[in-house]
Amino acid sequence: MPNFTLSEILTIALVILIVFGPQRLPELARKAGELARKARTLTSDLRREFEDEIKEVTEPLKEVTDELKGARREVESSMKSISDDVQKAKAEVESELAETTKEVEDLTAPESKKSETPKKSETPKKSETPGEPDDEAIPVADPEPTEGDVEDEA
Predict the structure, then answer these.
(1) Does the pLDDT of residue 7 top 50, yes or no?
(2) DSSP secondary structure letters along 89-113
(3) 8 and which of 4, 70, 88, 116 could share a cystine (Cβ 3.0–4.6 Å)?
(4) Taking 50 as the threshold, does the pLDDT of residue 154 lie above it?
């Protein structure tokens, strides 16, 4: 609404009084009041209709957003629960793995110590340099028995 000063309002009233005369002034004021009332009524009706239309559109959207927020909370709580379960399972697997590793180390520790010391019955190889044949690698044939050897056995 425009802001008028007192002098502007008096000037406008004086111009209206001169143009329309003092006899028609009450009738013009009544019609101006009716027009203002109708304008106010129309604007309030339009405002109410716009608000109703906006509510019709926003209420379903609000319901959907509320449902989505609830679903989000459920998903987050499910994810947290699953994450906790996975962490527990991981801890259990790690502890079982540690126990199994320790058991395997305990079982293989005596065997590995035995395999590190050479057995007395085993003799080290004579030649381990490349190019020289090992005695064990070349099979040696037994000499054929002679006639004297055959009689000694009988």
Answers:
(1) yes
(2) HHHHHHHHHHHHHHHHHHHHHHHHH
(3) 4
(4) no
